[in-house]
Amino acid sequence: AQRVTQPEKLLSVFKGAPVELKCNYSYSGSPELFWYVQYSRQRLQLLLRHISRESIKGFTADLNKGETSFHLKKPFAQEEDSAMYYCAPRHNQGGKLIFGQGTELSVKP
Amino acid sequence: GAVVSQHPSWVICKSGTSVKIECRSLDFQATTMFWYRQFPKQSLMLMATSNEGSKATYEQGVEKDKFLINHASLTLSTLTVTSAHPEDSSFYICSASFYEQYFGPGTRLTVT
């Protein structure tokens, strides 16, 4: 069965601290993996995808096929990073996303 | 960038009535749109995949006769909650697919 696990419901860090939001997936085939972010009172938006291997707002995520993980990292968290973060694999372009439970990141001053 | 709108942004209706929610892709054509439901402080639950010109594909456990989906054009999909009950109260979100998924702002439905 397709499954996405984000083990931390809430992650609280101080400004300037490193942050890692975990994501593990169980998925047949070779899915494309995404991280979405939802700031307070805003719509869900794409943060980054594994195939582009880019850094957005200082965040990076490396796909580890051996561990079936796609953890999101940022070396120095900022208060404006406080939001809900969702990991989501997708089987093919145009296909449906399967969302993890989400991790609420709270960055304190 | 690609923009998806939803209308209305919030609606209150009485139990037993039906409510229609629209999802539009404003600056691109989307052959596929998705409908999600989100409870407070919870993740998005996919309800159905809507393909233009064909019947929607519903996820397991979602009543297709209760949640009617129509995707009549490449820029519009509608979700109709029929005979709404208080337990249908939720936040409904749509997305439109164009290489990636773009999400609407959501519709808050409250059934009294």
Report on the structure:
The complex is a heterodimer of chains A (109) and B (112). Chain A is an all-beta fold. Helix content of chain A is 0%, strand content 47%. Chain A has strands spanning 3-5, 10-14, 19-21, 24-26, 32-38, 45-49, 60-64, 69-74, 83-90, 103-108. In chain A, the strands form three sheets. A five-stranded mixed beta sheet of chain A has the order 2-10-9-5-6, with no helix packed on it. A three-stranded antiparallel beta sheet of chain A has the order 3-8-7, with no helix packed on it. Chain A is globular and about 40 Å long. The model of chain A has no long low-confidence stretch (mean pLDDT 91). Chain B has 112 residues and is mainly β. Chain B contains no helices and eleven strands. In chain B, strand 5 and strand 6 (57-58) form a beta hairpin. The model of chain B has no long low-confidence stretch (mean pLDDT 93). The chains are: A mainly beta (109), B mainly beta (112). The A-B interface holds A 34, 42-46, 49, 86, 93-94, 96-102, 104 and B 31-32, 34, 41-46, 49, 93, 95, 97, 99-101, 103-106.
Mean pLDDT of chain A: 91
Characterize the biggest β-sheet of chain A: 5 strands, mixed
Q: Report the average pLDDT across residues of chain B.
A: 93
Distance between the termini of chain A: 41 Å
Rounded Rg of chain B: 13 Å
Please mark out the parts of chain B with pLDDT under 50 across 5 or more consecutive residues, or reply none: none
Tally of alpha and pi helices of chain A: 0
